[in-house]
Write a structure and sequence with these properties.
The protein contains one helix and six strands.
């Protein structure tokens, strides 16, 4: 999978999924502000499912992927891309001969 050279626009209200890293838990968030300046375009993200006290944070606009590879190469993706990836993975599991296929519900 190759990344395109131009990133589709992310706007206020868009939902994202952040896979997290060693110090930050994975979470869903909402873009609450988009700002362009001489250093680039940045998005302010408000975590949606974090414990109380978690602050909004800024990320580079280009850090948000619109295709989820399901691993660390796409750490921050749109919620739509994450849902599509998750459904593809669940469909693979449902169609497999795995004894765990019965747990791959649509939820």
């Amino acid at each position: 999978m190759t990344k395109t050279t131009t990133t589709p626009a992310v706007k206020v209200g868009d939902k994202i999924f952040n896979r997290g890293d060693m110090c930050n838990h994975e979470h869903f968030g909402t873009v609450i502000e988009v700002k362009a300046n001489r250093w680039g375009t940045h998005c302010k993200i408000l975590p949606m499912d974090e414990p109380t006290g978690r602050y909004a944070y800024w990320i580079e606009h280009s850090a948000i992927d619109h295709i989820d590879s399901g691993n660390g190469s796409t750490r921050i993706v749109t919620a739509k891309a994450h849902a599509e990836w998750r459904e593809r993975e669940l469909a693979k599991l449902r169609n497999s001969k795995s004894p765990f296929a019965r747990f791959a519900s649509a939820n």
